[in-house]
Specification:
The structure holds two protein chains of two kinds. By secondary structure, chain A is an all-alpha fold. Chain A contains seven helices and no strands. In chain B, a hairpin with a 2-residue loop joins strand 2 and strand 3. Chain B starts with 5 loop residues before the first helix and ends with a helix. Chain B is rod-shaped, with a radius of gyration of 30 Å. By secondary structure, chain B is of the alpha+beta class. Chain B has a seven-stranded antiparallel sheet, with helices on both faces. Chain B is built from nine helices and seven strands, in the order αααααααβαββββββα. Chain B has two domains: 52 residues, no CATH class; 179 residues, Phosphorylase Kinase, domain 1 (2-Layer Sandwich), CATH 3.30.200.100. Classes of the chains: A mainly alpha, B alpha+beta.
């Protein structure tokens, strides 16, 4: 488990996109890493460590959602999203839109979309990480991608059809 | 060509089709502009997600995460926990003994005990031993003086082989406390714990031993000082005398 810290950047990227909040994300990463060290005996060396870490993070995230729902606190849907520090000017508006749209997906759709597009896992790996059938991965992916498209196009004024004034 | 499977549309978006199949899907998309617009939007999402979150990969992880990811960090935590546990036992014992009417003088006063605890907690810190480093000493002294409401000084222990690392603000029983940290070439660390109390009476040096930590402490008008270190008592005494000589308000 010496290489655990090598996985921090990816865990932090995924957690940031998942939670939309810098501090909640790092708390999630910390919980994940601590659980990984406590459960290191359960990791099979022939499997990919990063995928196993993602599984642990998924389980913790889901538990947090359940707890949050029980407490009637702000759901993750309403968390403010942070603008990225390094978005270029041209991308700026669209990048801000993607934060907002992402926050409006259901957590299940968000997880699938991020594991496939941002983390570039195969559909099979995504299914294993989330412990769901690959068919469910594909259907969630379709819903997530179409919903994102709808949310982004609704928000971006530049994509409204131009009216021709006569 | 018939409509590709939805799974194939995803695979096309994610670049996971072989060349022939990918070309076939591209061809089909050209003939179906609505689907093409849909998949181009999917591709754009992917680019935007990377643009939005890839910068996180370049950010240094906070120290708490790096530390949590190091199994090697655990023995150090254990050492802190063990030392605090030891101090807690001392506190409990002291309390019980007071009930048994042992003279008050036998118990370590809060100043020395709190200084020892703060020493044990912060000296093992590798990355963040202090809040403000010695490179900003003027700012450090000004800040802590303001918070404690009395002008502070950082004594020099260069002759004894210790240099200032920096300092931090801590909560004390009656208000803010300052802790200055020093380190020698072998990495041994000393801490000077400073708190104010208007009811202080001047005292001479006193010594307390809390586990492995020796503490010399004294009161000078309303300021209480405690110098802690894990080293032979004689060596710590020489440094404490140097501190006293530099800090004593009479000088």
């Amino acid at each position: 488990m010496v290489e655990l810290s090598e996985h921090l950047p990816r865990l932090r990227r995924y957690a940031r996109a998942l939670t939309g909040d810098r501090y909640a994300a790092d708390d999630l990463v910390q919980d994940t890493v601590e659980r990984a060290l406590n459960k290191s005996a359960l990791w099979r060396p022939d499997s990919r460590l990063d995928a196993w870490l993602m599984t642990l993070m998924h389980n913790i995230f889901v538990n947090q959602l359940r707890t949050a729902a029980g407490r009637h606190t702000d759901s993750l849907e309403t968390l403010p999203s942070e603008p990225s520090a390094r978005a270029t000017q041209a991308d700026g508006i669209e990048v801000r839109d993607i934060h907002g749209a992402l926050a409006r997906l259901s957590p299940e759709q968000r997880e699938v979309l991020l594991l496939v597009t941002l983390e570039e896992y195969s559909y099979d790996e995504t299914a294993l990480i989330l412990d769901i059938p690959v068919g469910t991965v594909m259907s969630r992916l379709s819903r997530a991608r179409d919903r994102m498209r709808q949310l982004i196009e609704d928000r971006a004024p530049g994509t409204l059809p131009l009216k021709v004034v006569k | 060509m018939n409509r590709p499977l939805e799974a194939e549309l995803h695979a096309w978006t994610d670049g996971r089709l072989d060349e022939a199949r990918s070309a076939a899907v591209s061809q089909w998309l050209q003939e179906n502009p609505e689907e093409e617009a849909r998949l181009l939007a999917w591709k754009r999402q992917k680019e935007l997600l990377h643009a939005a979150f890839d910068p996180v990969l370049e950010e240094p992880a906070p120290a708490r995460l790096e530390e949590a990811a190091q199994p090697a960090a655990n023995p150090r935590r254990w050492r802190i926990a063990a030392a605090i546990g030891w101090l807690a036992v001392g506190i409990t014992t002291g309390y019980t003994m007071r009930g048994a009417s042992v003279p008050e003088a036998a118990a370590t006063p809060p100043l020395a005990r709190n200084a020892a605890i703060a020493h044990v907690v912060y000296t093992p810190e590798v990355r963040h031993p202090v809040e403000v480093g010695a490179d900003q000493e003027a700012h450090l002294v000004q800040w802590l003086s303001k918070r404690l409401g009395t002008p502070l000084k950082t004594p020099r222990f260069v002759a004894q082989g210790f240099e200032l690392v920096g300092g931090r603000l801590l909560p004390g029983e009656r208000g803010p406390v300052a802790q200055f940290m020093y380190q020698d070439r072998d990495g041994r660390r000393l801490t000077l714990y400073v708190r104010t109390d208007p009811n202080n009476h001047d005292t001479a040096f006193r010594f307390a031993q809390e586990g492995a930590v020796g503490v010399f402490y004294w009161l000078d008008h309303k300021v209480g000082y405690a110098l802690s270190g894990e080293m032979p008592r004689d060596e710590l005494l020489r440094i404490a005398e140097a501190a006293y000589a530099q800090l004593n308000s009479v000088n």
